Amino acid sequence: MRIWPLFLKAPQYLSFWMLVDTAYVFLLFFFLHAIIPLSFSKFIFVHFLAIGVGSMVMFTGLGAGILWIPVLTFLDIRPSEAVAISIFTQIAGKGTGSLTYFFNGMVDVKTAVAFIPMALTGVTLGFLSSFCISRGYEQFLLYIFVAIAAYLLIRTIQSLKSPVPVIDALPVIPAPIIYAKSYPVVILSSFFTGLLSIGNTDWLIPHMTLKLKMPTSRAVATSLLIMFVTILFYLCLTCISVWQGYSSWPHGTHLLFATCSGVILGGQIGTRLVRIPWFERYQKHTFIVLLGVSIVHLLF
């Protein structure tokens, strides 16, 4: 009976996840080519890339589409299908990573509980709008998203000059009022997730650090949990849409055998980078750089 506590504690150690990942790659080797239409060399390339992407996403909180979509299109996956595969891949990495953050006490639970219903409302409105809005209007909405993200990027850069903000009025204002003022940001950012498959963390992390005065590590952990629930709900909406015949399942889903397993291990690595003082000190700087690259990627 004493062996069960060891099994329950095993996921706390990175070596456990590395061992599970090694066993998975070994077992999957016998199914490649024969059942799964994927060569071993391509599998290894995508798998290790997924580990790197998962690490950076869980460390900075930025959406993984900035890295996944160009790579998937390079692998002959159409952009529209690459977006869907990217979203589905993030469920695996952000799921395990968010749970790690949650059990380590880094998630602001009250904020997450207040924001998740608004995020689900926004992603539902965006998903339904995708069937009604033409591609021209989608491009216009994308520019709006980029403009606001650029504004938040500039504000985040300015906040580097005062890394420890002084909070005066925050304790006087009741929490529900603070959250209510944040609801439009949560709904609008999640609307773009449902419409354009863009991660809402690009808005939520700067908003939490600048307006709610959260430390960057706590804002990243909280935003990633909200994003995980959002994209999980987005997957449910997609499945219902395919079931009802309104859309088709994307091709190239065999790559998920490589991407999902890789981001699970990468997610565990990323959540542990925050525990290292040097990485924690430059977490906001890394987020700023990747957000800037993400904005350029969305424009071009």
Give a topology summary.
Elements: H1 3-9, H2 14-28, H3 40-60, H4 65-74, H5 79-103, H6 109-129, H7 135-158, H8 175-196, H9 201-210, H10 216-243, H11 256-273, H12 277-281, H13 283-299
Helix pairs in contact: 2-11, 3-11, 4-5, 5-10, 5-11, 6-8, 6-10, 7-8, 7-9, 7-13, 8-9, 9-10
Textual characterization of the structure:
Helix 6 (109-129) runs parallel beside helix 10 and helix 9 (201-210) packs antiparallel against helix 10. The termini are far apart. The protein has 13 helices and no strands. The longest helix is centred in the last third of the chain and has 28 residues, at 216-243. It is mainly alpha-helical. The protein has one domain. Helices cover 74% and strands 0% of the residues.
